[in-house]
Write a structure and sequence with these properties.
Helix content: 25-40%
Shape: globular
Number of strands: 14
Structural class: alpha+beta
Order of helices and strands: HHHEEEHEEEEHHEEEHEEEHE
Largest sheet: 7 strands, antiparallel
Strand order of the largest sheet: 1-2-3-7-6-5-4
Distance between the termini: 99 Å
Oligomer: single chain
Strand content: 15-25%
Length: about 350
């Protein structure tokens, strides 16, 4: 009699266990349970499931790191490494060695200008790195999140958009957890393919404002992206060549606008650090580059507008630096205007 009672019970338990292990509903429950205690509970269900297919094994790595006084976390979702942390407005990040949150958010490849996320986000995508920052209104801190593919290939525009949705949602969750009153953006629009060099000689994006006429042999082709008044980094490459992968090679002049933590990252944290020390001054030029700065809304750190070159000896003479200063001045004025900056300090 006991056997007849126990057997159905055993079969029911086996069936229940099989359902728990195999059904989509149960997989969702297990995945939700894992997320609750993973990466400070900041990883969103819907946006992460796109990359994990609800497989909890794809959430198996988390690591807290310490660098330059900026603690941050690294978590993995599928084949995407996520870096998240808080960056005080007065922190400086340039260093010849060592890692920090500044290292995590930077571009991997400077020969292709970053594409703004749009939608009102302080974010960009550039060659496998998608970074977003949320400046806090109630404190001098920015919440920063960077997503980096483990593969060397740049993601397709559609995949990049999904990664951006994951990164921006994490940033919003982190801001809420860390009592940061921030203004998130809206829907991220479709992202364009990576820019390529153009010989048209007409600037329609981030190269607008740069005086191109009269210097065709030095500044063409150009490489630029769409403009955005909220992108924390934007670039314009002049005299850009095409690399074997068809995207970007060397450039005679690289002009970049860096805002908030991306400007802080370039400045030296110590008088003993040679790298980035020049950017502690508001404007200037030397044989390595030219720079300007401005005060921009949302961040206490001054924005940096920089010009450097991949071409050796291109900034050695006074005439070469005069041309470089002229190019950067046009770029900085246009960028500062887009970002509603004031107190623009120019070299010369």
């Amino acid at each position: 009699m006991a056997l007849y009672v126990a057997l159905p019970l055993v079969l029911a338990c086996v069936a229940g266990f099989a359902w728990y292990r195999l059904s989509d509903t149960a997989r969702g429950w297990r995945y939700e349970d894992k997320l609750a205690g993973y990466c400070k509970g900041l990883i969103p269900y819907d946006e992460s499931a796109v990359f994990t297919d609800l497989d909890t094994a794809d959430l198996d790595f988390t690591d807290q790191r310490f660098g330059a006084g900026l603690d941050y976390d690294m978590c993995r979702v599928g084949n995407i490494n996520l870096f998240l942390g808080r960056i005080p407005g007065q922190a400086l990040g340039a260093s010849e060695n060592g890692e920090s949150m500044f290292t995590a958010i930077q571009l991997r490849e400077w020969e292709v200008p970053p594409t703004p996320l749009g939608g009102g986000w302080h974010g960009f995508t550039g060659r496998g790195v998608i970074s977003v920052v949320l400046p806090c209104r109630n404190k001098d801190v920015s919440v920063a999140v960077s997503a980096q593919e483990l593969t060397s290939d740049a993601p397709s525009p559609e995949r990049a958009r999904k990664i951006a949705e994951l990164a921006t949602t994490i940033a919003v969750n982190a801001a809420r957890r860390w009592s940061c009153e921030a203004d998130p953006g809206g829907r991220i629009p479709d992202l364009p393919a990576a820019p390529k060099p153009s010989r048209s000689g007409v600037a329609e994006g981030t190269c607008q404002g740069v005086p191109l006429r009269g210097h065709a042999g030095l500044v063409r082709p150009i490489m630029e992206t769409e403009t955005s008044g909220t992108a924390p980094m934007e670039g314009c490459l002049l005299g850009a060549s095409e690399a074997p992968d068809g995207v970007g090679g060397e450039a005679r002049y690289r002009l970049y606008g860096s805002f908030g933590p991306f400007a802080q990252r370039l400045r030296s944290a110590s008088d003993e650090e040679k790298y980035g020390q020049q950017y502690n001054r508001t404007a200037g030029s030397d044989s390595y580059g030219v720079w300007a700065s401005a005060k921009c809304p949302g961040f206490s750190a001054r924005a940096l507008f920089t010009l450097d070159s991949d071409v050796r000896n291109s900034l050695d003479t006074a005439a070469q630096r005069d041309l470089a200063e002229n190019l950067l001045t046009g770029f900085a004025q246009a960028s500062a205007k887009r970002h509603h900056c004031t107190d623009l300090r120019l070299p010369g």
